[in-house]
Amino acid sequence: MSMNNNHKLLLLTFVIYRLIVTVGLTLFPSELLSLGLKGKLSMEVESSSKDFGMLNQGEAVAVLHPAGSAEDVARLVRTAYESGFAVSARGHGHSINGQAMIKEKKLKGVVIEMGKGGDNNNIRVCEEEMYVDAWGGELWIEVLNATLEYGLAPMSWTDYLYLSVGGTLSNAGISGQTFNHGPQITNVHQLDVVTGKGELLRCSEEQNSELFHGVLGGLGQFGVITRVRIALEPAPHRVRWIRVLYSNFSTFTKDQEFLISLHEKPASQKFDYVEGSVIVDEGLINNWRSSFFSPSNPVKFISLNVDGGALYCLEITKNYNQENGDSIDEEIKVLLKKLDFIPTSVFTTDLPYVDFLDRVHKAELKLRSKGLWDVPHPWLNLFVPKSRIDDFDKGVFKGILGNKTSGPILIYPMNKSKWDQRSSVVTPEEEVFYLVSFLRSALDGETLEYLNNQNHQILRFCNDAKINVKQYLPHYTTQQQWMDHFGDKWTQFFHRKMQFDPHCILATGQQIFQFHPSSIATNITNYHHII
Ligand SMILES: Cc1cc2nc3c(=O)[nH]c(=O)nc-3n(C[C@H](O)[C@H](O)[C@H](O)COP(=O)(O)OP(=O)(O)OC[C@H]3O[C@@H](n4cnc5c(N)ncnc54)[C@H](O)[C@@H]3O)c2cc1C
Ligand SMILES: *[C@@H]1O[C@H](CO)[C@@H](O)[C@H](O)[C@H]1NC(C)=O
Ligand SMILES: *[C@@H]1O[C@H](CO)[C@@H](O)[C@H](O)[C@H]1NC(C)=O
Ligand SMILES: *[C@@H]1O[C@H](CO)[C@@H](O)[C@H](O)[C@H]1NC(C)=O
Ligand SMILES: *[C@@H]1O[C@H](CO)[C@@H](O)[C@H](O)[C@H]1NC(C)=O
Ligand SMILES: *[C@@H]1O[C@H](CO)[C@@H](O)[C@H](O)[C@H]1NC(C)=O
């Protein structure tokens, strides 16, 4: 064959191939309809195209409601793998930057709406072995509700329970219990995962362990979590919830670090939950965590001798039930004696365990009623190494922040020893690091711009001052930034991606890997399915 003929053949192949691709992609949703799904495939993408951040708009072409069927998820992902379109699992859409979205039309992507639907058999409690099996799209509030029937509960939480199990485990899942029990990802026995090749695999420390560790904190990159086995403990009945104030930052952090260092002590000698927050404005009165202080607990700023600087609030709890109810006052007294807070600033509440865990939902209902919930949330979450937290305070809380915060700012430390280094999650290099969360709402465009600018300023400050922070719930847009984020862990993360989602079809909204339809399309055999 002459060069010329070779050329023509190539051209012809190309034309036919384009035709196949075009026809294939146009046919695409109807092709999906023939998959024999248990759940429902819908073109109504509107509600799946939004998230809590309200900063992005999704561009999915279809939504799958698998109704608790892992087989549905596997079929869809297998087709996507073979045909070359993107798939994103969506938990409860509580991401900030479109992480669960299909961001570009050209990806021809399908969102799997993991929540909503299915029957009530998606949560099964095993009393003897103290674990619960839950569908990956289940909300933590539902898991709690189900386990409480048996007097049991998971141990490690997030502040807010209307988040999906699969969504928080794709990040870490942290709260005031993390210092004691580790993040939620350290309290998982086993997972069922549909990989990016459409295989449904069971995994644990013993079985498919690379997938197991990869998926935990894996930002949805290696598979869709369809079932989770979570460790349980006997559920406490009530909670003593205490807040105390500090005006001296180093005293505040010294006390927080002391409290988390008690993690190996018996339960009677430590608190069950350690968090904290920064108050630089009238946030005490105005923000969504404020109900604590009023009306029965009014805080008088003047009486606290605040000279225009920040106040720091330590938040701790102690769980109890009938058995240890008598000793709890004494246990708390002993612990508080070791702390150095402003003596007149102790605020105490006592409530059922469920009400404590579900506390943010109460605030949500209040904000919703005022139309203050469905607004843009330019949130920023950082892990700050302990050795630089003082510099962070000076530069950010006492510097960049000014006196208008537009929402709560959380700060609490944790110890890396409770984090399994084999997971995909990234933390700073030091043993102890702080979570600092700027959980702010923008009620108008001007505020949104102001807060976005301030977030950039904070990140620039850390960079200039060489404070090696790591973003939690990270948001980056270039692979170089992601490589910097993962640091030493990048090679492993990349290899896991090539192993479990080689066509890069999963969770493209994270913007870590480039989806390459062309690289798949060169393999014509993949299109036999479509035509
Ligand atoms: C009010 C509020 C309070 C919060 N408090 C805390 C807190 O205290 N601690 C904390 O750690 N976080 C907290 N978060 C953040 C929360 O953990 C993240 O938003 C997380 O993404 C879970 O939300 P989601 O279930 O809606 O997941 P989505 O936003 O829907 O998804 C997040 C990512 O995970 C992927 N994903 C979702 N489901 C699956 C699955 N089944 N399998 C594989 N990948 C999946 C998605 O594709 C996406 O990339 C809070 C968020 C809000 C809005
Ligand atoms: C918890 O379960 C009970 C019944 O078991 C149900 O009535 C209630 O609505 C559930 N609550 C939530 C928040 O799901
Ligand atoms: C805070 O406390 C530390 C030690 O407890 C002390 O050295 C420092 O001067 C205090 N800072 C202020 C502003 O009072
Ligand atoms: C962190 O945990 C390890 C292991 O329990 C412990 O040795 C270390 O002292 C802890 N660090 C702090 C600062 O509490
Ligand atoms: C907040 O800061 C602004 C500008 O720095 C200042 O004008 C204002 O007085 C401050 N308000 C309070 C309550 O401190
Ligand atoms: C093409 O796809 C088929 C089926 O998915 C696979 O078996 C084959 O290895 C692929 N070939 C190349 C060169 O990627």
From TrEMBL:
GO terms for molecular function: cytokinin dehydrogenase activity; FAD binding. The chain crosses the membrane at residues 9-28. This is cytokinin dehydrogenase. Residues 56-235 form the FAD-binding PCMH-type domain. InterPro entries: Cytok_DH_C_sf, Cytokinin_DH_FAD/cytokin-bd, FAD-bd_PCMH, FAD-bd_PCMH-like_sf, FAD-bd_PCMH_sub1, FAD-bd_PCMH_sub2, FAD-linked_Oxase-like_C, FAD-linked_Oxidoreductases_BP. Belongs to the oxygen-dependent FAD-linked oxidoreductase family. One of its GO terms (biological process) is cytokinin metabolic process. Coiled coil: none annotated. Pfam families: Cytokin-bind, FAD_binding_4. It catalyses: N(6)-dimethylallyladenine + A + H2O = 3-methyl-2-butenal + adenine + AH2. Keywords: FAD, Flavoprotein, Membrane, Oxidoreductase, Transmembrane, Transmembrane helix. Its cofactor is FAD. Its EC number is 1.5.99.12. It comes from Lupinus luteus.
